[in-house]
Amino acid sequence: MDTTFDILIIGGGPIGLACGLAAQQAGLSYVILEKGCLVNSLYNYPLNMTFFSTSDRLEVAGIPFMSINAKPTRPEALEYYRRVATSKHLDVRLFEEVTRITPNGDHYTVQTSRHTYTGRHVVIATGFYDIPNLMNVPGEDLPKVRHYYKDPHFYAMQRVIVVGAHNSAVDAALETWRKGADVTMVIRESGIGSRVKYWVRPDIENRIKEGSIKAHCHSVIQAIRPDEVDILTPEGVVTVQNDYVIAMTGYQPNFSFLEQAGITLSQDEKRYPTYNPETMETNMPRLYLAGVVCGGMDTHVWFIENSRDHAEKIVRHIKNS
């Protein structure tokens, strides 16, 4: 098996695939290394999720994405990216986690769970969906607490607390309620987040207004126990009987992985990685970032639709260097 390449691409999500397609078109040797399944983050999205973006804005390398409705669903996206990878014969090596990136002269050595690779250039396109933002409260490590939400049927006839007020939390609250769960939302802010999908907002606001879904605003979880949860509200601590906590508190990139690779991060709470926006090259020569990983803790800044061109910038810079 060949282990020396022009470009080593870490991450087999949509932007990692776009980088592979750009390298392929430019005649550069490459490999895409993915620790999970193909487009692993999208696979771990909720089963019934509908994208905010239209299908044409999720396309990579100009390959048409056809969906039944204007807003594609998770199954449609999985099918699209699978067909992109197979029809273009992309060299994607799945279930192979990268554990270390080490400079080696004018190359990089990349160690994975299976092999060691050498590349003149490395692209990190690992996204941000791997590490949840913790609430750091007693009981958060109990089995009843979930930081990922998948299928609403699991929560039928259960007493569910949903933490958060943005798209993931709103979808979880509405879907579990419709499956018969008794749902309470715990919202740090004054109400539903401003970025919630416009066709969903009236639904959740009306369910809260009519009392079908209970909501505590300006509130946080204070403690979690096997059968109940303490919620700190403006009126004081409220104890709620509870079976499951779905903590949709967001996620963050693997900052320690970036730092191990030598990439410098800003010292504020945003933890922005250092890179040139014109070329996507980091402070480490020939080491690039692509996709949502560029945003640090601002995980809502970059999406598939506005970071697809990162692949073209990177390959153009490599070809011209």
UniProtKB/TrEMBL annotation:
Record keywords: Oxidoreductase
GO molecular function: flavin adenine dinucleotide binding; monooxygenase activity
Pfam families: Pyr_redox_3
Organism lineage: Bacteria, Pseudomonadati, Bacteroidota, Chitinophagia, Chitinophagales
Name by which UniProt lists this protein: YpdA family putative bacillithiol disulfide reductase
